[in-house]
Write a sequence for this structure.
């Protein structure tokens, strides 16, 4: 599960990591007043203090997309807010259709001397959490990794001992922190590592971590977090009621949320062949074989080992809610699953499915490959319901199914 930047900042602040103060708004009408509040709260001039307006969406690359704007007046703040709330944000992480922006963060602006990257994630290769840090922050870490991999430090974290202070200090020096910055950076690294473990994170990222330009009170500048991203391990969420409350359904694909309610694992993809499969491994190989035969899967959908008729009916509704779907491949291997249940689900789904023009039944080609437990009964049932399934083609095996569905959609 992902959360918004404004929520991530609160987690950081609660963990003792310094973050500039901020407020959230949902309409441009609140912008002018909020600009003044944020500037005043931070001890800045409410008529020309630096404030940052930032779109709150679960996608990065906002800066380059024009959805992080520095403003110096209530008027500029309102213009930035109006722009962000009325345009879809298209960044390198959203796809060309972009995403809607419903919330904005107004944060006290800071003068930046240097930007760093700091994150903790799980490294599957070593089976440990690792701290990742770079003095080339601000930009995407993937770009740094490609152009200058030596600029990225990786430090394994002991599963019991956690991140050790000496490790954090070593990283701070290697990143080039000086004087009072060193202890500030060390404190932040240790706090982030503790937060990562305590909240069952999959990613805890601060990008950028910054040093402010020197000022009277801070001759070495201050080390601050000005953007943060968290990803939590869904399998650990049951023990974090506080994190569950941060879930924002507006940021999720609506079909994926419906699927969850019915116990289906559904992930929307870009292609035009809908897949209905029982078992995650089978779903993966079904997508592979579709691609092998020149097709593009529209989704990953695993109805699970013990799906009910209702779940299968819902699965069809979800697949067909994607207007890009031009054909469906059902690939079932009945181990625990009874093929007759799937067949009943297919027939019921066809009988109850309403097309936009008011007619019932599936219009797109439907290729069904059934194998395994009670398969004869399942096949019989489909045959006897042929009038409800005019677009049905039975497949002999997986290759036959993939060939049939691929040629049906071109
Ligand atoms: P992202 O592009 O979605 O990762 O959004 P960020 O919050 O990381 O902002 C992108 C960039 O905007 C940062 O790398 C900074 O260079 C700049 N930025 C963000 N906040 C401030 C600020 O308070 N002051 C200044 N000078 N620049 C900022
Ligand atoms: Mn960022």
């Amino acid at each position: 599960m992902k959360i918004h930047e404004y929520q991530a900042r609160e987690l950081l602040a609660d963990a003792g990591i310094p973050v500039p103060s901020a407020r959230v708004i949902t309409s441009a009408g609140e912008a002018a007043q909020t600009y003044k509040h944020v500037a005043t709260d931070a001890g800045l001039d409410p008529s020309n203090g630096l404030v940052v307006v930032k779109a709150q969406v679960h996608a990065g690359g906002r800066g380059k997309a024009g959805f992080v704007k520095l403003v110096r007046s209530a008027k500029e703040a309102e213009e930035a807010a109006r722009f962000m709330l009325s345009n879809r944000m298209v960044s390198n992480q959203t796809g060309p259709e972009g995403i809607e922006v419903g919330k904005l963060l107004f944060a006290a602006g800071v003068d930046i001397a240097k930007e760093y990257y700091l994150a903790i994630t799980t490294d599957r290769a070593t089976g440990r959490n690792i701290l990742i840090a770079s003095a080339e922050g601000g930009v995407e870490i993937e770009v740094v990794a490609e152009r200058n991999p030596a600029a990225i430090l990786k430090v394994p974290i002991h599963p019991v001992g956690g991140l050790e202070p000496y490790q954090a200090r070593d990283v701070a020096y290697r990143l080039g922190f000086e004087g009072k910055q060193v202890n500030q950076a060390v404190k932040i690294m240790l706090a982030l590592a503790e937060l990562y473990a305590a909240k069952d994170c999959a990613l805890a990222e601060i990008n950028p971590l910054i040093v402010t330009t020197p000022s009277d009170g801070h001759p070495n500048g201050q080390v601050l977090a000005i953007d943060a991203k968290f990803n939590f391990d869904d399998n650990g969420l049951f023990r974090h009621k506080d994190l569950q409350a941060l879930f924002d359904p507006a940021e999720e694909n609506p079909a994926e949320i419906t699927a969850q309610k019915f116990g289906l694992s559904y992930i929307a993809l870009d292609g035009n062949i809908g897949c209905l499969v029982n078992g995650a491994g089978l779903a993966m190989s079904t997508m592979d074989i579709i691609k092998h035969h020149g097709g593009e899967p529209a989704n990953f959908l695993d109805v699970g080992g013990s799906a009910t008729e209702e779940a299968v009916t819902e699965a069809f509704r979800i697949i067909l809610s994607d207007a890009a779907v031009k054909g469906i491949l059902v690939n079932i291997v009945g181990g625990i699953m009874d093929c007759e249940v799937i067949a009943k689900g297919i027939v019921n789904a066809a009988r109850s499915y309403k097309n936009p023009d008011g007619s019932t039944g599936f219009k797109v080609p439907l290729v069904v490959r059934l194998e395994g437990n009670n398969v004869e009964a399942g096949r019989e049932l489909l045959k006897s319901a042929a009038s409800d399934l005019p677009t049905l083609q039975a497949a002999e095996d997986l290759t036959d199914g993939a060939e049939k569905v691929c040629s049906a959609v071109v």
Remarks:
- The first strand starts at residue 22 and ends at 25.
- Residues 207, 227 surround manganese (II) ion (ligand 2) (CB under 6 Å).
- Residues 180-198 form the longest helix (19 residues).
